[in-house]
Amino acid sequence: MPDPRDPRGIRYPFASVLAVAVCAVMAGAAMFAAIADWVDDLAAPAWGRLGFTGRVPVLTTVWRLLVRVDAETLTAVLADWLCSRVSALPPVRRVTAVDGKVLRGAVLPEGRVHLLPAYDTSIGVVLAQVQVAAKSNEIPAFAPLLEQVAARLGGPAGVVIVADALHT
Questions:
Q1: Helix (H) or strand (E) run with residue 22 in it
Q2: What's the Cα-to-Cα distance from 106 to each of 28, 49, 101, 111, 114, rounded to whole Å?
Q3: Among 101, 114, 107, 97, which Cα is nearest to 160's?
Q4: Are β-strands 125-131 and 159-163 bridged in parallel, bridged antiparallel, or unpaired?
Q5: For the chain, which residues make up each domain, given as ranges?
Q6: Which of 3, 19, 36, 49 is most buried, with most CB under 10 Å away?
Q7: What is the pTM assigned to this prediction?
Q8: CB count in 10 Å sphere of residue 8
Q9: Transmembrane stretches, by residue range (predicted)?
C-alpha cells in the first residue's frame, strides 16, 4: 500500500500504525478513541512486535493516517490477506452474499455512508466492498462489486451470488 504521509516528520512505520488499527478493530474497537485506548493498553513487548520503538502513536496520529489511506486499496489488501489465512481447500460450492448497509454514526459531507459488501459465507471474509454514491442506490454499485469479486476469486465459475430482489 502506498504511504499517504509526507516523508518529512514520519515517526512511526506505516505498516505498524495500520497493523495497530486492524488489530484494534478486530478486537472490537469501533472508534478512533477506542483504537488509541487499545494501543495504550498493550504491553511494551507487544509494541516491539508491532514495530514500535520506545513510544506508540497517539489518537491524532492514528486518525490523521487512517483518514488519508485509500479505503479501496486497504479493503483489497485486507481481503487478500484474510483469504490467504483460511483453509487452502476450496469449498464445493462458494456462496457469496451481497447486502448493502448504511454505517451507523458515519457521515460524510454529502450524506450517510452506504456500503455494498460481498461476503463469502464459506470462509467468513468480505471479499470486496464498494461505497454507494450519495444520491444513488445499490443497483449501479452492484456490477463493479461483482467485477472485484470475480477478480479476487479468479473468475465467477462456481460462485453462487445471493442478493436482494432489487438486483434481479
A1: helix 14-26
A2: 17, 32, 11, 9, 9
A3: 97
A4: unpaired
A5: 14-66, 89-167
A6: 36
A7: 0.65
A8: 5
A9: 12-35
